């Protein structure tokens, strides 16, 4: 019995397996209107056809100024929600859970997509002024404006409105993006949040107040959806977020109604020194799961089926998210199922065409149209 190919509940939603697609920006809304199109449809549907249990969209901006680049996708208006609807439906048709990541990039907004330039986009080229808890810039990006208290108070409802649109578009899971140095992470980290008011005071856990309010608002807006939160479990800089702080953030978000935690790291501070290697973020998932009992996924350089299976067998996480492996092979889970022999069933008597017993597909993620490719033919 494969752990990777066993079903799992994410709050009120059930996923057919634990091989999931990590959110990946495509920077492909060429009209700069945040409306997803043919590229997004093809891209995301292919992973669902390829056997994923859950397919997460790229960071979809909850408000226009929260886009990382002018070409980012969004979910801040109804036109965008209507464009997401057939995409969510196609993911569901292929048997995966359609999920969307809700995001605001804060001081890391208004940057060039990676193949168009480096750093902040000037207003003349469609850029906009950025906002953050404090005025410190990220590296050489344009310095942000510090948000006024009333602007911070408006954010939970902006995320909630995005979540309502996501549900209306047919998504069964929403993920609050509080990682990778974007706005909610900027509030959580002592390195980027130096506010002296109620949104930044240290010691009282007030830096986590915005995350708590966002999760509460999204929970209320989407009571039947799976509510996931992506966190950076380490800033990889002395004085920044560490595992103990992350455990606290998880406890607060669980109390606020989160069902699941997606544990990544980094992205907040250019001084970060990350010991990148296979499964390097898995220990965060393990630590959070052990300390809080939360359901978690691991992510980051989990490339091989056996490696993914081991993360689950060892009890480090309840699911794995993969990013780049799906870009290399959109049918990653089909290949993984074959590699792990995860669908092998007892011999079916009298297989009509002399097919081997292991060709039985009852539990398989292989679409019936593709099963003839399930085993490499020696002929
Ligand atoms: C092209 C690309 C775009 C990404 N965009 C996002 C994003 O929108 N939101 C996010 O949380 N992470 C994003 N990430 C990070 C991935 O979700 C994932 O955490 C990271 O790639 C590590 O997993 P991997 O080693 O399996 O690729 C992106 C990564 C890539 C390669």
Written overview of the protein:
With 379 residues, this protein is an alpha/beta fold. The chain has two domains: 333 residues, TIM Barrel (Alpha-Beta Barrel); 39 residues, no CATH class. Helices cover 30% and strands 14% of the residues. The protein is built from ten helices and twelve strands. Strand 1 and strand 2 form a beta hairpin. Helix 3 packs parallel to helix 5 and helix 5 runs parallel beside helix 6. The chain binds flavin mononucleotide (FMN). Flavin mononucleotide binds next to strand 4 and helix 9.
Name a few traits of the molecule.
379 residues; eight-stranded parallel sheet; two-stranded antiparallel sheet; 10 helices; 12 strands; globular; binds flavin mononucleotide
Helical residues, percent: 25-40%
List of distinct ligands in this structure: flavin mononucleotide
> What profile does the largest beta sheet have?
8 strands, parallel
N- to C-terminal separation? 29 Å
Would you kindly provide a brief summary of this structure?
The chain has 379 residues and is an alpha/beta fold. The chain has ten helices and twelve strands. β9, α6 and β10 form a beta-alpha-beta unit.
Topology:
Blueprint (H helix, E strand, L loop, with lengths): L7 E3 L2 E3 L3 E3 L16 H12 L4 E8 L16 H16 L3 E7 L27 E2 L12 E2 L2 H20 L4 E6 L4 H6 L20 H13 L4 E7 L10 H13 L4 E5 L17 H11 L3 E4 L5 H9 L5 E4 L1 H5 L3 H9 L39
Parallel strand pairs: 3-12, 4-5, 5-8, 6-7, 8-9, 9-10, 10-11, 11-12
Antiparallel strand pairs: 1-2
Bound molecules: flavin mononucleotide.
């Amino acid at each position: 019995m494969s752990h990777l190919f066993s079903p799992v509940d994410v709050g009120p939603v059930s996923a057919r397996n634990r091989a999931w697609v990590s959110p990946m920006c495509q920077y492909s809304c060429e009209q700069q209107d945040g409306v997803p199109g043919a590229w997004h449809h093809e891209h995301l549907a292919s992973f669902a056809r390829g056997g994923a249990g859950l397919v997460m969209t790229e960071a979809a901006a909850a408000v226009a100024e929260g886009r990382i680049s002018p070409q980012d996708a969004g979910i801040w208006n109804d036109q965008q929600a209507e464009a997401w609807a057939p995409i969510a439906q196609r993911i569901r048709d292929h048997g995966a859970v359609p999920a969307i990541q809700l995001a605001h990039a804060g001081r890391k907004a208004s940057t060039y997509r990676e193949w168009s330039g480096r750093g902040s986009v000037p207003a003349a080229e469609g850029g906009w002024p950025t906002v953050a808890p404090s005025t410190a810039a990220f590296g050489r990006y344009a310095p942000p404006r510090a948000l006024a208290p009333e602007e911070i108070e408006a954010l939970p409802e902006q995320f909630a409105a995005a979540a309502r649109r996501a549900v209306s578009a047919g998504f069964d899971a929403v993920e609050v993006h509080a990682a990778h140095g974007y706005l909610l992470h900027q509030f959580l980290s002592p390195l980027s949040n130096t506010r002296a008011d109620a949104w930044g005071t240290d010691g009282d856990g007030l830096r986590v107040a915005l995350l708590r309010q966002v999760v509460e608002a999204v929970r209320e807006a989407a009571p039947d959806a799976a509510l996931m939160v992506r966190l950076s479990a380490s800033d990889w800089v002395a004085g920044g977020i560490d595992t103990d702080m992350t455990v606290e953030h998880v406890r607060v978000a669980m109390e606020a109604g989160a069902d699941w935690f997606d544990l990544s790291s980094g992205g907040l501070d250019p001084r970060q020194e990350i010991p990148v290697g296979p499964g390097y973020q898995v220990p965060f998932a393990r630590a959070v799961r052990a300390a809080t009992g939360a359901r978690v996924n691991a992510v980051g350089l989990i490339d091989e089926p056996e490696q993914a299976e081991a993360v689950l067998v060892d009890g480090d996480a309840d699911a794995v998210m993969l990013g780049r492996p799906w870009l290399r092979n959109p049918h990653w889970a089909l290949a993984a199922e074959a590699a792990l022999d995860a669908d092998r069933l007892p011999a079916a008597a009298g297989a009509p065409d002399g097919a081997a017993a292991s060709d039985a597909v009852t539990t398989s993620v292989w679409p019936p149209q593709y099963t003839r490719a399930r085993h490499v033919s020696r002929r």
